[in-house]
## 1
Amino acid sequence: MSRFFGLIGREIRLSLRHGGDSFAAILFFFLAAALFPLAIGPAPEVLGRLAPGIVWVCALLAALLPLDRLFGADFDDGSLDQLLLSGLPPAAIALAKAVAHWLITGLPLLLAAAPVAVMLRMPDAAIPALLAGLLPGTAVLSLLGTAGAAIVLGARRGGVLLPLLVLPLAAPVLIFGAGAADAAAFGLSVRPHLLLLTAMLAACLPLCPLAAGAALRGAVE
Amino acid sequence: MIFGGFVAESGVSENSGLVAEGLAAIRGERLVFAGLSFTVPAGGALLLLGPNGAGKSTLLRLLAGLGRAEAGRLLLDGEDVLADRTGHARQVAYLGHQDAVKPGLTVAENLAFWGGRVAVAAALAAVALGPLAELPARMLSAGQQRRLALARLALSEAKLWLLDEPTLGLDAASVARFGDMLAAHRNVGGMVITATHLPLPLPDAAELRLG
């Protein structure tokens, strides 16, 4: 168990040392969201209507950015072999990586989402629902992304393959996450959307690390 | 057996050691080796010799549980290795071609995942990297990075060491220190299997010629 938390700590320390990588995802989130008012005009009623979707799409794309190196760096320098021989089951390694990815990317996205939502003139009533949806939503994205990153590991053009693999799987998260914020904006119940998002998290929590673990074993063979 | 005294003392049974029977491995589409059998007793050492591409690294990865065995059986102290690879991993320390050193972390931080503070200091002392413990690993030379990878071996409590060209890039003094590490490991019943093209400080090691 201490090895598991040791691995999470190591990942966080590594990402803080290479601060640019993790910061880039947040910066991308801000910049991509800031492009929408420029492209579709600053009219509050249009922007406010589109805001939940914009925030969610940008968060999804930003979460994808660091996935390429999630296992890639360890695979290239031989660390992955050592991790697999550390006595941790491969699924636990994958889960630790997913937790680290969420702490390094998902959590900052969650914090950055509120100012971006305000910038996009999202109705005040919708912002809590947006954040409540992003909390399980970003966790699901981290888990799906970890599984995707492990599966494309060692493949040529893995960086191109990864979004093609993960984006379709992330579509339900996007639908219900943006749906929660929309429902709140129209005064409807947010609960079903959030329950579905949490159900997705409950399903991904065991399944994605198992799939990623099997893929890691395959990648080093 | 040389370390018979130790075996009796610790109560290790007759089947202690590593037993390989009829191992075969395929890399790409090619059969690298087949029908490979050997034994390494507790405290024993085995040198893998052979030309490039003979399958030395493939065999080491297979023994570590990283590679896949197409056929054969592998027993460590009577337990089937290939059936429980995660359990086997705890008993194995593997040193591959790559040093698995993170340039962004300091020398000591690189080892922190593998052991506590005191153990890390001792392991760094064993490879004479103690004074450099707080230096970022990217400042190390290739030979020093190799020594850092060797320090990870000293940290592990694994009984089976699998080494792929361990002394590549090391100076004479480091090779001598590495010899002490190997001797200490074998003295407590540890096993060493190593692929090499260079002379190693590994007295009375058995040889296995591949290819």
Note: Residues 90-119 of chain A form the longest helix (30 residues).
## 2
Amino acid sequence: MRTLASGLAKLSRMGRGAPVLDEPQRFLLLSIVIGIFSGLAVVCLQISIEFLNWITVHTPTPPPRYVLPIWPAVGGLAAYALVHFATPAARGTGLNYTRAAVYASDGYIPFRSVLGKFASSTLSIGTGNPMGPEDPSLQMGAGIASLLGRIFHLTRAHMRLIAPIGAAAGIGAAFNTPIAAVLFVMEEVISGWNAGVLGSIVLASISAVVVSRWFLGDSPLYSVPEIETGTYAGLLAYAAIGAVGGSLSAVFTRRTAQLRGRLLKLGKRQRFLLPTLAGLVVGLTGLFTPEILGAGYHFVDGALHDRFLWDSMLAMAAVKLALTALCFSCGTPGGLFAPTLFVGAMLGGGLGGLAQILLPASAGSIGAYVLVGIGAFFAGVFRAPMTSVFMVFELSASYVVILPVMIANTVSFLMARRLARRSVFELAGYQDGFVLPSVEEERETPVMHVEDAMRPGRERVLADTSSVAGGLRALDASGERALLVESRRGAWRWVRGRSLRRVAGSGDAGANLRDAVDLLPVVRTYPDVPLDQAMRKLATYPLLPVASRVNPSALVGTLTLDDVHRAYGILAQAKDRPADQA
Amino acid sequence: MSPQRFKCRICSQEIAAPGVECPYCKAHSAIAEGASPRILITVFGVMVVVFTLTSLYARSFKIVRDERGKMRYDRAMSLLAEGKHLGAMGEFREALVHSRDNPDYRLGLAKALFEAGRYSEAETYLTELRGANPTSGIVSLLLGRMAASNGQIDVAVSHFRTAIRGQWEDGADQRRLALRLELVELLLDTGRRQQLTAELLDLEEELPADRSARLRVASLMLRVGLFSQASSLFRNLLDENPRDRVALLGRGDAEFELGNYLTARTQYNRAQALRRDGRTQARVGLCNRIIELDPTRRGISLAERFRRSRVLVQRGRAAVGACHDPRASGFAGPLPGPLDELARTLDMADLQLERAGGSPSVEKVEANTQLAERVWALAPDTCDDPIGADEPLARVMAKLAR
């Protein structure tokens, strides 16, 4: 009855135009709405790319040979012109724009960038340029989320989180990988596990994937045949793929950034021609190796089915890598996800074919190497090891290969990080004028905990049976302004120094603290609590008892603001500073 | 009705009204908290419209995609039928680009790859298809053929058996029969006699109505050595058409192998009446010589029986002695075990042949026959090819041994 009454009341409020949902409810509902809209946008993008591809490169009857090189050039020119004149906000990588929305623009992404990304990516990828639709999907999702956030009047705190939610929806719908999308956004966009937004990201990703599957089918991106991973000795081959993938990704990162930096220094008119020239190179190369044109998903499928010889796979990987670097540097619209998967697949397949020749007894099937190559190269380029593992799992719907993928991805990630400190997106971000926090720096900045700052032992603790005079002596000895007082039952309170002095001044220096002084309540903290949290408590209390997690009545130490300063090196700096500056 | 609340968009603190300066962060972007129902309804309305438009777009996409895929598939099938495997492969791949999960396209590509000899790639598609539909007959058949081509006969047999039990879209019985015959051929070619016999005996129990198939089964039985079953099958076929020359020859061969030379000769003669050929003529001659040598034949006199038994001893002695005669080699000393037995048996035969006189009796016939069998039993140890030396004799001795 009560539920019915509450429902009726809500309906009645709706009729009068009052808001019916509070902010958290709206946020969750909005996540689903974002997922649906992003899913729809991504479906339309993929269909449009296919349609254009059928008209240009993938015609029912083979076009004359001279036509093929023209299409990528025309597509590159048209896409660049569109971005340049109509939607400048759609320039650059979607990942960086989404991160910028989180860190710099309070979640604001202009909706024109969504339209611009849609049209420019369709023109670019649909005409055979070797880019992928996933990064544009990510930016489109973030842009849609930003628009909806503004329409739904979200607060700034929530607006900052809305772009990653849309990004997860976009990437999930593009790849048909809900888990990898969530992990990617956590690893790459918000650089951490934000519990407050996790539920919304999951909801958006799932609803986008449901929409995508509704229209485009529920099969994974690649159909993986029966695969064998080989013997344990064969795991060395997977580690080698990881090492090569990591090294190659570092080379790709550095060379792409170098080339992009040089090309950005060119004049406007020259830069305008770059995507056209890149497209022409792509088209001419495509005459001899048509596999490199477009996103190339079905060629990865072919590699999984043992279609190519190992040497031709390595050659395809090299050509695609070079052309992707060229197009990315020239500003051809499109993302790096699909080319990364293609290069990784061909690299893994090529090295796997070599392993089958060199280690015939312990080698696995080609499909396993292709999947491992995908994961390893992705981990190296995107610096997202967790995402890469789950993405392979979701793309292939195969669990068999998970152990080799984990080995190779870890090796690749470590190798790539060692050889190139920053990812290609971070470097591109700097070149585009964004000074966004480095994902890896954020991920690896150590968090200080109470145990790093607290003073161990009972130095600042008095028993409540102590005398006021004893308390004053302890206070003077410690140099503190307050002390902790422990009762016989293990409860803690605190006492101010000035209270002790006042009582002592009134002649009650011999009296018990319990009877003579106002003991104030205090809250405890624990050694593993981040210092940030503890400092919020120190705003109210001058010192905190640090208790054991397994025996909360046992005191392991105390914490004051001075301890915190000392831990951060603030007091030491103050002491070192010359007197006049201090 | 609860009063409407407003929050600052920047610091989330409650404020008095929209548009006023936030008393906490001094921002001017304060707005009404939340979305009004009108906004909610508008957003959901837009969602429905976009969803509908996307549905229409996706539907037209699917129609074009399926048409293109079908066109490529049809083109590929005709190329495959013409034996242009490489062209067919390309078209099947294109069809799969349009409709990646279509099992017919995948199967077509696997067939083209198989025909082009690209077994490893074909196998990946076939194993995938088998995973999706483990009872598919055609998939198991192709896997079986591929395993047979790779020399993995046990795997091939297993796939063939799965294919025989599997699902077939049209003409399932005919396909199963053809498949069983293909399996039998495979077993025959690879010399797996036990499996082959079992397979043929199974086939005999489920014989089809198709005459040519029964003829093929009977011929295979003859090749495997299932002579009585083969004879029975040929007889049935001859009941239906007594002028079937292949069945006549088949039955003749089966009866010949069973030692029924009279029946065999009759069948050969009937076949000769339909069309003469050298092999059958030779077979008739061989039958005649065997029949004339056989002492157990019904309807002959005791004297003739006795004569034939002596001829058996004589020809056996000659055949074995021609291969190896210990006395003739001039060896003087005591002979080792087997040779000693051979020498004694041949001596016994000589003695028997010297005793030409006397009236024939059943006992003498019996004794001659037994002696001939003893002499012939030594033939495998002494002669490389005792049958080739005197085939009629060998056939009669084999019949006596039975």
Note: Confidence is low (pLDDT under 50) at residues 28-32 of chain B.
